[in-house]
């Protein structure tokens, strides 16, 4: 394999475009001084490229070969770096470091780094993934995303989920405030003062959130939260609730409530696909802006903080914009499955 672009080229698309403009300006009968002033270049530059074009036509606009040190890295070494990175691991380790690989191939660590960059290889990185095994994966994607992109008329769509066991954590030492050049500091250890569960329903059209705090998240607690949604929703509107496949969402007590309130319809996301539920994006904001750096000495303080956060959010609520179509999502899943189904996997 040859590393494309390994040898540096001095000429660029912008440089060739400038030379072409010089030639075109001269072809219109303008003097060298006039062309130089018009294009903002030196007079010698115009003279040189005009003369080279007259002598060699288009070939004259390219750079002449320039002297320099010969390449010290062969194509075989480049190929070895790429193949070892993709197909091998060092003894006793899970992935290569640039110094280990450089020693094996016989080149410098900086050369290994440049090869990795050129081929988009990052062996030090890893990401988690889970492919849904839901037999109704495609149907559920089309159902949920369809509600985001084209919500039904005379209806409201809520993205609903629970954030269980939010901990009231108190740091063992006071938090040190931020100073110029010094970030906020807090102790790594903490004391626990109990947990609480948060039910949240995100209105996908307005961004408004309906929240309910509970000590547990059983089926009856989810039923009670549906009652709260019912109380905060115009009775003339149908209610579509997007939720995950938690057993509490499918319990008999929920089925009985749906029969008693036919304007409610539950839509389930595919298994292992919480990313498709928009309320998860709101939970991420809650975690980042309120919980990660919060200090709560009691459940009461945590409860107050959560209620304040929801009230503040609703004051300046904004919806999350969903742009991916069902076909785009399904195509991306298919492409990824095809890539990881090759012989190397």
List the helices and strands and how they pair.
Elements: H1 13-27, H2 32-39, H3 43-56, H4 75-87, H5 98-105, H6 109-119, H7 137-149, E1 155-171, E2 190-203, E3 209-214, H8 219-231, E4 238-243, H9 252-260, E5 264-268, H10 279-291, H11 299-315, H12 326-340
Parallel strand pairs: 1-4, 4-5
Antiparallel strand pairs: 1-2, 2-3
Helix pairs in contact: 1-2, 1-3, 2-3, 5-6, 7-12
Can you walk through the features of this model?
- Pfam families: DDE_3, HTH_32.
- This protein is α/β, with parallel strands linked by helices and 345 residues long.
- The chain has three domains: 13-61; 75-119; 153-327, Ribonuclease H-like superfamily/Ribonuclease H (Nucleotidyltransferase, domain 5).
- Helix content is 43%, strand content 14%.
- The protein contains twelve helices and five strands.
- It has helices at 13-27, 32-39, 43-56, 75-87, 98-105, 109-119, 137-149, 219-231, 252-260, 279-291, 299-315, 326-340, and strands at residues 155-171, 190-203, 209-214, 238-243, 264-268.
- Helix 9 (252-260) links the parallel strand 4 and strand 5 (264-268).
- It is elongated, with a radius of gyration of 31 Å.
- The chain starts with 12 loop residues before the first helix and ends in a 5-residue tail after the last helix.
Features:
about 350 residues; alpha/beta; Nucleotidyltransferase, domain 5; 3 domains; five-stranded mixed β-sheet; about 45% helix; disordered N terminus
């Amino acid at each position: 394999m040859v590393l494309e672009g390994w040898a540096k080229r001095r000429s660029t698309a912008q440089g060739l475009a400038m030379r072409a403009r010089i030639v075109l300006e001269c072809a219109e009968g303008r003097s060298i001084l006039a062309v130089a002033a018009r294009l903002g270049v030196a007079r010698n530059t115009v003279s040189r490229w005009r003369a080279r074009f007259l002598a060699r036509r288009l070939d004259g606009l390219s750079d002449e070969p320039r002297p320099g040190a010969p390449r010290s890295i062969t194509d075989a070494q480049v190929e070895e770096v790429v193949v070892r990175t993709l197909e091998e691991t060092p003894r006793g380790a899970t992935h290569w470091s640039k110094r280990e690989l450089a020693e094996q191939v016989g080149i410098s660590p900086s050369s290994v780094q440049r090869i990795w960059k050129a081929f988009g290889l990052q062996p030090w990185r890893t990401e988690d993934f889970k492919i849904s095994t839901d037999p109704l994966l495609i149907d559920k994607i089309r159902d949920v995303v369809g509600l985001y992109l084209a919500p039904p008329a005379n209806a409201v769509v809520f993205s609903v989920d629970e954030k269980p066991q939010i901990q009231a954590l108190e740091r063992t030492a006071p938090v040190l405030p931020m100073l110029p050049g010094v970030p906020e500091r807090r102790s790594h250890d903490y004391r626990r003062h109990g947990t609480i569960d948060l039910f949240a329903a995100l209105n996908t059209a307005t961004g408004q959130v309906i929240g309910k705090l509970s000590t547990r998240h059983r089926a009856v607690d989810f039923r009670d939260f549906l009652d709260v949604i019912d109380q905060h929703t115009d009775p003339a509107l149908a209610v579509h609730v997007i939720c995950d496949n938690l057993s509490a969402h499918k319990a008999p007590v929920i089925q009985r409530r749906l029969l008693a309130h036919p304007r409610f319809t539950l839509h389930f996301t595919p298994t292992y696909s919480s990313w498709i539920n928009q309320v998860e994006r709101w939970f991420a904001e809650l975690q980042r802006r309120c919980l990660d750096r919060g200090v709560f000495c009691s459940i009461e303080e945590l409860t107050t903080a959560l209620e304040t956060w929801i009230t503040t959010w609703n004051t300046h609520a904004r919806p999350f914009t969903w742009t991916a179509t069902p076909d785009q999502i399904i195509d991306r899943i298919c492409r990824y499955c095809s890539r990881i189904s090759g012989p190397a996997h």
